[in-house]
Design a protein that fits this description.
With 253 residues, this protein is α/β, with parallel strands linked by helices. Helix content is 37%, strand content 24%. The protein folds into two domains: 146 residues, Rossmann fold (3-Layer(aba) Sandwich), CATH 3.40.50; 66 residues, no CATH class.
């Protein structure tokens, strides 16, 4: 469903993503992990068409992004790490606007909006201006908008930021259902390794722009030469800094 082939992104002499090759099949929930500055958000922005690769090829649902970016965008729902919204619109007005952008038929749009508002615990807020929403409510509204046109692919950057425990549980269950029942592909980046370990079928780890490991947790344990470790231990082993890095145990407090 998502296929990246030797994808590279450079800014001058700096290489943010370096010859990344990755394939995510339909219905898979992929955890895309890496330290800060590893190139995760840059990669996701290239997949959704917000950034143009310096080199390489991106295909989504069999369509070459460079050849037909509009067709690719029609099948993607994008949830960024920060909710960018038109805050002078109401929640309902924003969803109507998004539905019209994606060409969702009016009858279907009007039927789905109340269902999505209810599913994301926003029922009763549909006539309120978005500027009055909390950060968590704005994040849930962005998610509702991303699902409105029934995308085949969900690209999500730090989905749990700003969500309370109830909202986080809702989102985790929803991602599982989308993958299992509708064969939606979810490409999820998070620093919350416990979430990735809990819900992701496969993990890809990026470090300094390069893919250093991919596979299920057992495969990653084998790559890191760790027996029985959790994802945090494996991740730290695979992305360990050089010996000059300060360990918290050596820090004066």
């Amino acid at each position: 469903m998502i296929r990246l082939e030797q994808v590279t992104k450079r800014y001058g002499k700096f290489t943010a993503v370096d010859r990344l090759t990755l394939h995510v099949p339909p219905g898979q929930l992929l955890g895309f992990l890496g330290p800060n500055g590893a190139g995760k958000t840059t990669t996701m922005k290239m997949i959704v068409g917000l950034l143009r690769p310096t080199a390489g090829r991106i295909r989504v649902d069999g369509v070459d992004l460079a050849a037909d970016p509009i067709a690719v965008k029609r099948v993607i729902g994008y949830i960024p790490d920060r909710p960018y919204l038109y805050e002078k619109l109401t929640g309902e007005e924003f969803l109507v606007f998004v539905g019209d952008l994606f060409g969702v038929p009016r009858a279907e749009r009007d039927r789905r909006i109340p269902d999505l508002l209810s599913a994301f615990a926003l029922a009763g807020w549909e006539q309120e201006l978005i500027e009055s929403f909390s950060h968590g409510m704005k994040q849930r509204l962005v998610m509702a908008a991303a699902f409105l046109h029934r995308p085949k692919v969900i690209i999500v950057d730090e989905p749990m930021v700003g969500l309370d425990p109830r909202g986080a549980r809702l989102v985790k269950r929803l991602f599982r259902r989308l993958c299992q029942e509708r064969q939606v592909t979810v490409f999820l980046s998070t620093h919350t390794l416990a979430v990735a370990e809990e819900i992701c079928q496969r993990i890809a780890i990026l470090d300094r722009g390069r893919l250093v490991a991919e596979g299920d947790l057992d495969t990653l344990r084998e790559r890191a030469r760790i027996e029985g470790g959790d994802l945090e231990q494996v991740f730290l082993k695979l992305t360990e800094e050089d010996s000059r890095a300060i360990d918290a145990g050596d820090l004066e407090v």
